[in-house]
Amino acid sequence: HPTYIGPDKVLEKRKQYFFPCTHHFYQDPPQIVQGSMHKLIDHTGKEYTDFFAGVSVVACGHCNEHITTKTIEQLTKLQHTTTIYLTEPMVELAERLANDYLPGELKRTFFCNSGSEANEGALLLARLHTKRKDFLALEYGLHGRTFLTMGVTGMPMWRTDDYLDPHVTFIPRPYDEEMDTEDAAHRSIAALRQVLAEKGDTFAAMIVEPIQGNGGIIVPPDWYLREVKALLSEYGVLLIADEIQTGFGRTGRMFAMDHYEIAPDIITMAKALGNGVPIGAFATTDAIAASFNRPSASTFGGNPVSAATAMAVLDYIEQEQLVARSAELGGQLKDGLRALQVKHSVIADVRGKGLMVGAELNTGEASLNAALTDRVLESMKHRGYLIGKNGVGRNVLAFQPPLIMPEDEIQTMLSVLDEVLSEAVYTDEERGSKDGRDS
Ligand code: PMP
Fold it and tell me: Cβ < 6 Å from ligand 1: which residues?
């Protein structure tokens, strides 16, 4: 049995050798040493059922041998060379994305290494194509951690710069706790219409997550992005769909944009495409791609190992029909959470598509919500279930498991969550002051 230094030492080293921006969940974060499909194992051998999949990354399961076999095969044959020479996996992958999966007329792909880099490239492409400088983005979106992608990130906790980028205008998102979603979506459209009427010809693009992930799993009404796209088109502003979290079956369609039956001008991808191996990409139409014609290359973008892995991921998604499975299991998960909502009034809302589902917790006192959410996460972890959290107030339980999650695990997790919500909702002290509101 290998010996590990243990979570306390890992944390200590993080504190000593990392930047203070390093971030983790849990009072006592587990040290994960192994993964196997929907399971993660910590340094003591304790098993966890993973309902977060490394934030929607490991859609095909941890260390899935159908995929790792292909990764290792490529790793031992040709690991890396430069795009100055020709390699096959990256062109095969681009061809496959264009012919089988990308929405609308999106046919050309540029490979890079992460979500941030994909969005950065997409924003640059929009500037090159439109010869305009400014961007539109939604409040509480998250698009990355590089200079420009942080500039279009509307989620305050993920902005580490104190100065808002002067080239970015934020539009209210199609959601507001205090409002009906349809009304919030209409308000968002009205704000967009007004900004475009004022200075529509200054914007290169609007970047949106078709379903906001970190912002709290926000699903707009089906008409919303169609309306956004139509408005943007009037002013020659491109629509960039950030599908970094939603892509590759997560929401029950290959891409979330497929739900809305429109194609963006540019789509960005990362996370699940590599199932844990780093890869990013942005794709667009022939006409828009034509504007990016000066020499540009990424050292590792489209490297044979990542490209071969991504193709194995696509094969596995097909073979196991994971897109349909995501829709089916997501429905079961949402129904189960809605049933819990009837019993536990602290669940204020259940929302999502496919296996991207959020349950918003609201105690009635905003200041208690985040602590309560943490307590639920901690108790779930204790009982062997890892779930995520997100949302502006960090009070949304996030369920984004590998798409291969066995059906019975969903039901078991729901009954464990039922117990946890019954027991761990309030501390004794809080319970005293809230007698009768919830149990
Ligand atoms: N866009 C979205 C929607 C994301 O969720 C994330 C990461 N959580 C990113 C972009 C940034 O991706 P990366 O961390 O790979 O740079």
Answer: 55, 114-116, 119, 142-145, 209, 213-214, 242, 244-245, 270
